[in-house]
Write a structure and sequence with these properties.
Helix content: 25-40%
Strand order of the largest sheet: 1-2-4-3
Length: 235
Amino acid sequence: MIHTYLGETIRFEIKYKNRTSIGITIDNYGNIEVQAPKGTPNDRVLQLLEVKWGLIQQKLKEMESRLMGPQKKTYEYGESFLYLGNAYPIEVFEDINITQEHVVFSEEKLHIYVKQSDTEKIKQALKRFYYQQCKALVEKSISAYQSNFKNKPRSVRISDSKTTWGTCDSKLQLTFNWRLAMAPQEVIEYVVVHEMSHMVHLNHDRSFWRLVGKIMPDYKEKEKWLTLSSWKMTV
């Protein structure tokens, strides 16, 4: 169906089902589907679409950006980087007297201190910050969930993996991707629970997923966040 609202065209598909309320979903390609109770008047569906149009537009823009892939970073003042699930602008300070480039997080910005305002130095300062934060956040989460496991990790490392968020080997050595520091706290906790569960079940069989689900019943929501947001977790 097609509906025009505020000069813009809304294309959507409507399905009538045995349900009590109207729901709107948008797939990974930006297709809008409305699921409505049988007998729902079209006017009611269109009214809800108009009420939700601002949110729908936001979701469509996010999906368009995700399909385009990560954009090349400029490291200029005000450019945003993710930290704990939120985007924060950067501000670079040049100080020849500092001993090492570093990042200080405030509630509103990522303050980057470098000896010289050089793109590579800014990038390395950000990566160092994420490495350090990831290690601290992961270790905090391990402590929080340790009571669910008999065994303890023998070591915890932070890596620059391009393919995995975390791993656990047969020696109970856990490794986590530094980019996790860009994810919300609850997503970091999910990856930690996932890898700690491998201390019990090394593969992804039913027993493994039962254990993950027992500890974190909504783990699929955390997986979904990683699936939809991993493209922008970059420096």
